[in-house]
Amino acid sequence: MVTPVDGNQPLPGTGDPDTWLPVQERRPLYPFNPDITSISTTASRGRANYNALQTTFKQRLWQGLDFVANYAYGKTLSNNLGYYGSGGVAAEGAYPMNSYDIEANYGPAFFDARHVFSLAGSYDLPFGRERAFGSTWNRAIDAVAGGWAASVAVTAHTGFPFTVIDGSRPSLQASRASERPNRIGSGEVDNPTLERWIDRSAFESAPDGQFGDAGVGILRAPGYWNVDLSISKRLLTMGQQYIVIRGEMFNVLNHPNMGPPDRNIQSTTFGPITGTVGDPRIVQLVAKYYF
Fold first, then answer.
1. Domain co-membership, 198 together with 142
2. pLDDT of res. 283
């Protein structure tokens, strides 16, 4: 029988969960003070490691163009999520399933992505006064055709891990943590769709009184990519003064990035993906006066 947490011990001479005392009476401090219930503690038991190949390609400013591109192929493992949340990721909670075995929570960190790519750059078009072409233009022509610039930011990464859970909580021992089922298959689906992202037949509830053996972060949510774009126009005014009018478009392609699926094997909607992460396209106009 698995050693219970929180002092959850069966009645003497039996390991049958049906004969266990009520959870409050199984707490370690109950004999001393029955009014004490759950106690939260903070301990230095968390650990993590990160290994990666990282590359950077940079173009310094050259004829109005500059950009930097980064790529990382890496892996991050941890035995604890921490208390600061994991928005948009279906991760393990802050508490270990089995408080006596925190290493059972060791697996891919909630932010682990195998491939990560980013690109950011800008380009000043070479047309207009004080640029390569059009330095002799009058103010009227320059106001229409000169002073244009664009910048772009691209981010992309492969899917974050998510943890399959069992809402029936069969161990009768994990008082604050989520519980995981037994894993009897890979759980991955060939050619997954939003309607079926996980193989339900790969999981089953652990026997009463036991913890499931499915690990943390064993499956992956869809990947993510996003493009932001900015287009600006510089208008000369008096002397060295000028106005910059800039249109900023976040998620310019209005691409929906899908979130993790419903991962509770007790849910009637287990497996499909129904939500998104991030915002739809956002457009804003900015004007600045430099003097």
1. yes
2. 97
Residue 21 sits in which domain range?
1-39
Same domain flag for 53 and 9: no
Other C-beta atoms lying within 10 Å of the C-beta of residue 253: 12
Judgement on whether residues 35 and 54 belong to the same structural domain of the protein: no
278: amino acid identity, one letter: G
Residues 84, 225: one domain?
A: yes
Nearest to 109 by CA among 271, 260, 220: 220
Residue 160 phi, psi (nearest 5): -75, 155
| Number of domains the chain contains | 2
Residue carrying the six token digits 């003070």:
33
Residues 79 and 175 in one domain: yes
Q: What is the pLDDT of residues 6-25, one digit of tens each?
A: 444 444 434 577 778 888 88
CA-closest candidate to residue 193, choices 254, 271, 76 = 271
What is the 3-state secondary structure of the chain?
A: CCCCCCCCCCCCCCCCHHHCCCHHHHCCCCCCCCCCCCCCCCCCCCCEEEEEEEEEEEEEEECCEEEEEEEEEEEEEECCCCCCCCCCCCCCCCCCCCCCCHHHHCEECCCCCCEEEEEEEEEECCECCCCCECCCCCHHHHHHHCCEEEEEEEEEECCCEECCECCCCCCCCCCCCCCCCEECCCCCCCCCECCECCCHHHEECCCCCCCCCCCCCCEECCCEEEEEEEEEEEEECCCCCEEEEEEEEECCCCCCEECCCCCECCCCCCCCCCCEECCCCEEEEEEEEEC
Is 95 part of any domain? yes
Alpha carbons 45 and 103: distance in angstroms, whole number: 9
* Total-model pTM: 0.83
Which segments of the chain have a pLDDT < 50? 1-14
